[in-house]
Amino acid sequence: MLIEDLYRRPYHEYLNDIIKNMVDGVISENEVIVQEIKEWLNSETRKNMIIGESYYRNKTDIRDKKKRDVDWKSSVKLEHGFTKKLVDQKVGYLLTKEPTIASENDSYTEILGDIFNRKLLKTIKNTGKEAINKGIAYLYVYFNEDGELSFKKFKSEQILPFWKDDEHTELDAFVRVYDEYIYMNGKKEKQTKVEFHHSTGINFFILDGGKLVADVPSGINRNYHFTINEEPYLWTRIPLIPFKYNEEEQPLIDSIKTLVDNYNNQASTNADLLADIPNIIYKLINYGGTDLAEFLADLNFYRAVKLDEDGDVDKLQADPATDATEKELERTRANIYEFGRGLDQKDKDLGNASGKAMRHKYGDLDMDCNILESEFQSSIDHLLWFVNEYLLMTGKGDYRNVPVNFIFNRDIIINESEVIADCQASVGILDDKTIRENHPWYNKEVEQRLEEQKAKEQQEIDGYQGTFGPHPKDVNGNE
């Protein structure tokens, strides 16, 4: 969170004053939106989002390195993809493996399994990448062409949120600003589209010369959020789900940008030095030729040169001092992984680390993903609210009060034997299903296979009893 955000008035208070002014006829709603858009487009928060995206794509500030004062000097621009590696590492660690959705209600579990299909899980994974790069990401709730509940990721820099509370947990409204290219009079032109999403619907505009103009092709105003069987409905919540990287909504790039820039600059400067200083410098005394070109030609062709009386040829070995630069690069690289909370795969001790040592190596990454998971769990609960409302509206059941656990399965290097031993030691302490869910080989097909196995065993028992007939009775008449 930026310092400016700490002292800025909450949006809900700000909007209350705006509404009062509107009632008094001082300012119109459209003028308010335009002013807010202008502030948003020039805000530090949005600029950092764009920087985070650029550095993820390895488009860094070293590209602005100025050409040196002499034409023959090199101007190398080396870029190192630390940001992409750290972001992908966190996403791969927490969000790549299929999550476990656990509920005591089997029908609800089956429905959620269909909703959280591979497409939605991929969207959530990409939303995680967006959140790490930009501090916060957004999923928009909508209905696709088949009338099915769907979720779409909006680019964070397109979203201007109006929060109800200081903690940024619930939205009062939001504006989406984005560019779209259309053909007008045979020419391709850019239009800035504006969508104002609020509790009573959506307004569509085009930003033209600092003013909002009704976007007729998009429908101008819509007094509903969605339709089912052509019947309009309004959500009781704004259909936009925020996914935060951390409570402060601070992107990863804030912690590592200066370090990445320093690494790129030091590496590029070192490359310039190595490129510009030749390995050998010749020292000529009373050279008998006319110019240096002749000297080099004779040396390369004849392996000899002409010298005058008392002449001599010697060479000086050019050995640029790069040790200090190499040490600085090592320190900077270590700091990038430390403050970026990642795992450096080039760590020389990584390959021989034991189980406990490996967990220590993963400590920073694990801690950062704990924070990310905590934020995402809250967002998943928000998403499930829309799912439950949709199921209720479409007559598929009321699951609003049914507990469900959404478990993120981390892609961590573990000692499977130790985990299996821990599971065996937990028998009698935990229920069998919980133990199975924590087993390294567990997946959602295990429960079905266990049921099939039990049915087969029961069938064998029944067949065994049929072969030998009924049990003999004792003296009391009991089998």
TrEMBL record:
Keywords: Kinase, Transferase. Transmembrane segments: none annotated. The keyword Transferase applies. GO terms for molecular function: kinase activity. Residues 446-479 are annotated as: Disordered. Residues 446-459 have a biased composition (Basic and acidic residues). Pfam families: SPP1_portal. InterPro entries: Portal_protein_SPP1_Gp6-like (IPR021145), Portal_SPP1-type (IPR006428). This is Serine protein kinase. It comes from Schinkia azotoformans LMG 9581.
